[in-house]
């Protein structure tokens, strides 16, 4: 019996979507406003889902305090109020699209989970646009 526990989190961050080898006109054509050279921000909403078996002693799949602290250290402290392109090393050579941010978050959290657990990440870039990554 596998059960999913979920924790919501939030961060604000700025980004710019552009391909360094393209000129501004092509970046504007492909990415539109998201290619604005002066960057722009999003209020990202994150849902971290951890699936595993229930520990018969604690009744927990995972201690939510541990998950909360993990998200704080790996995501909120790392991304909140940051310029993702310029201040977060994972995006030095990786476009900080919602898709790539979700993959980076997954890769930062997964090593801290017990091996029998599976992880999936849902990341809202706007209330209507969101991505999911499950490895
Ligand atoms: Ni954007």
Write up this protein.
By secondary structure, the chain is of the alpha+beta class. It has a single domain (2-133), classed as 6-pyruvoyl tetrahydropterin synthase/QueD (Tetrahydropterin Synthase, Chain A, 2-Layer Sandwich), CATH 3.30.479. It has four helices and five strands. The protein has helices at residues 24-31, 64-79, 84-87, 98-109; strands at 2-15, 40-53, 82-83, 118-124, 130-133. The protein has a five-stranded mixed sheet. The chain starts with a strand and ends with a strand. The mean pLDDT is 96. The protein binds nickel (II) ion. Nickel (II) ion (NI) is lined by residues 15, 34, 40, 42. The site of nickel (II) ion (NI) has 4 residues, from strand 2.
Q: Would you kindly provide a brief summary of this structure?
A:
The protein is of the alpha+beta class. The protein is built from four helices and five strands; from the N terminus they run βαβαβααββ.
């Amino acid at each position: 019996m596998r059960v999913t526990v979920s924790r919501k989190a939030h961060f604000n961050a700025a980004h710019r979507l552009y391909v360094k080898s393209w000129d501004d006109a092509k970046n504007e054509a492909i990415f539109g406003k998201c290619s604005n050279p002066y960057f722009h921000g999003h209020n990202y909403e994150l849902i971290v889902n951890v699936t595993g078996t229930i520990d018969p002693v604690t009744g927990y799949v995972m201690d939510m305090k541990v998950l909360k602290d993990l998200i704080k250290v790996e995501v909120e402290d790392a991304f909140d109020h940051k310029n993702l392109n310029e201040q977060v090393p994972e995006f030095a050579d990786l476009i900080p699209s919602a898709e790539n941010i979700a993959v980076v978050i997954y890769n930062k959290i997964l090593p801290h989970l017990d091996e029998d657990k599976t992880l999936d990440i849902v990341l809202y870039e706007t209330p209507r646009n969101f991505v999911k990554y499950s490895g």
